[in-house]
Amino acid sequence: MNTPPSPVNPPKPDSAPLQHQGLIEAPICSKDLFNDRTCVYIEHEGMLYALRATRAGKLILTK
Fewer CB within a 10 Å sphere, N or C end of the chain? Predict the structure, then answer.
């Protein structure tokens, strides 16, 4: 069998935004959520949570 030669430079992954299959709602961009803040407070079922963005780009959720 003759198989075509493999490409020298394989195609790079698509740089388009991540596709979230199976989600009903579109994801919220963290930049939109934080809006130049490092902490947002979320009330959920009577409890208050703090969502913080670290300098390293990580998210920390605490009660």
Answer: N
